[in-house]
Amino acid sequence: MLNSHPGELPVYARFPVRPSRGEGCWIWDSSGRRYLDFYGGHAVALTGHCHPRVVKALKAQAEDLLFYSNAVPLDVRDRFFDLLLRAAPRELDKAFLVNSGAEANEQALALARRATGRSRVVAMEGGFHGRTLATLAVSGIGKYRKLAAFSAAGRDLLERTDLCPFGDEAALESLVGEDTAAVLLEPVQGMGGARAAGRPFLEAARRICDERGAVLLFDEVQCGAGRTGAFTAAQLYGVIPDGLTLAKGIASGLPLGALLVGEKLARGVGLGDLGSTFGGGPLPCAAGAATLEVLEEEGLAERAGRLGAFLAEELSSREHVREVRGEGLLLGIVLDGPAKPVRDALLEKHSVITGSAIQAEVLRLLPPLTAGEEEAETFLRAFRDVTA
Ligand code: PLP
Asked: Do the domains spanning 19-50+300-387 and 53-297 agree at the CATH topology level?
């Protein structure tokens, strides 16, 4: 069977897997073949595939009210706001709901420009923030920046972006100026190869932004919502930005993104300044509320921290492994050669799905936070076999 529909624009390199069912860390195709999903449905299956609590909440919500926009208040949306703001850093006490990570980042950049009256952004080499024009232009990955360059507006945004080597405090000092609206970074880069910025760099970024009147933005679309071992990496490292974005797993697979802001970005935002038809709709909010309840009740963030540390320790002494980096369950296994043959063999021989990164030698792991020892051992056995 073809990997993409003939009528579909051929933009995705797809795994040769056609899942028809999922449960926890596992998915099945229609022939009954079972796969261990250490790619986590693209870092989205935070509570595992089809967590019963999420499915139940969705079924109930679908029967009650499929949709109404932000033109009306909704109990289910208020419930999600309560849970979200309870889990988030207390300094970030206002949120705006959207449909995706890119959209959340787009709004974060817009609010930063508006709050400061400045237009430049300092972003990180290796950073990825989405596929809208403004987010492509602040990527630190060449192929995405090129996509922004097709239009005059994109070229203008590219010219207003300064790229900082990730983790380089001295470079950041020299790049943030009086015309810098925002410093934007992923505390743990995803596509950039599961690289953690580290507490000292984040603290320096906070200080530099405060000194120069710039806004600090954390893109936690991939690393947030429990994956690093705390609800946000901001809380894990104790460095609180002015704006923080979440998406991917916060509704376990329903399209939901959130921009969380503190006083600096919330000030002056009023009627009509932001908007989205689908953002914060009842179904994503029902799934989001169930996801946040599961995260808390099952202690998934702590669990992710523990399992991530176990996997990192087990893998780092393995043959052909140069380094294991990342945080919690956003891990990058740096191999001594290209990762592709290892990924292919994991999939073909052991039915284990893993991710890649911009560095050819990095194998990226993004399992559901519900993964346990059994899944970890299954992965480690398969990895040992294909790297032997
Ligand atoms: N930011 C980060 C760190 C991401 O990893 C991604 C997606 O991979 C995005 C933003 C974009 O999110 P979305 O695809 O939901 O727009």
From this structure: no
State the amino acid at position 247 in one-letter form.
A
Cα of 64 vs centre of ligand 1, distance in Å, is: 31
| 143: nearest Cα among 197, 188, 191, 92 | 191
User: Does residue 285 register a pLDDT over 80?
Assistant: yes
Domain formed by 19-50+300-387, architecture: Alpha-Beta Complex (3.90)
CATH classification code of 53-297? 3.40.640.10
What's the 317 CA to ligand 1 centre distance in angstroms? 31
Residue 166 confidence (pLDDT): 98
Indicate the pLDDT class of residue 3, thresholds 50, 70 and 90.
Answer: confident
Largest pairwise CA distance in the chain: 61
pLDDT number for residue 171: 98
CA distance 366 to 23: 16
Q: What percent of the chain stands above pLDDT 90?
A: 99
DSSP states of 297-351 as a string?
HTTHHHHHHHHHHHHHHHHHTSTTEEEEEEETTEEEEEESS-SHHHHHHHHHHH-
Least confident of 9-13, 349-353, 356-360: 9-13
Q: How far is CA 71 from CA 24, 104, 251, 277, 280, in A?
A: 36, 20, 22, 9, 11
Mean pLDDT in residue range 278-291:
98
CA distance 321 to 365: 14
Domain range summary for the chain, segments of one domain joined by +: 19-50+300-387, 53-297
pLDDT at 234: 98
Count the neighbouring beta carbons within 10 Å of the beta carbon of residue 170. Answer: 10
pLDDT band at 286 (very low <50, low <70, confident <90, very high): very high
- Hey, which residues does 196 pair with through a beta bridge? 188
**Of the residues 105, 129, 186, which should be mutated to test ligand 1's pocket, given the most ligand atoms within 8 Å of the CB?**
129
The contacts of residue 335 (CB under 8 Å, 6+ apart) are: 320, 321, 322, 342, 361, 362, 363, 387
Q: Write out residues with Cβ below 6 Å of ligand 1.
A: 100-102, 105, 128-130, 186, 190-191, 219, 221-222, 247
Whether 100 contacts 124, CB under 8 Å: no
CA of 137 to the centre of ligand 1 (A): 14
Tokens of residue 72, six digits: 């009306």
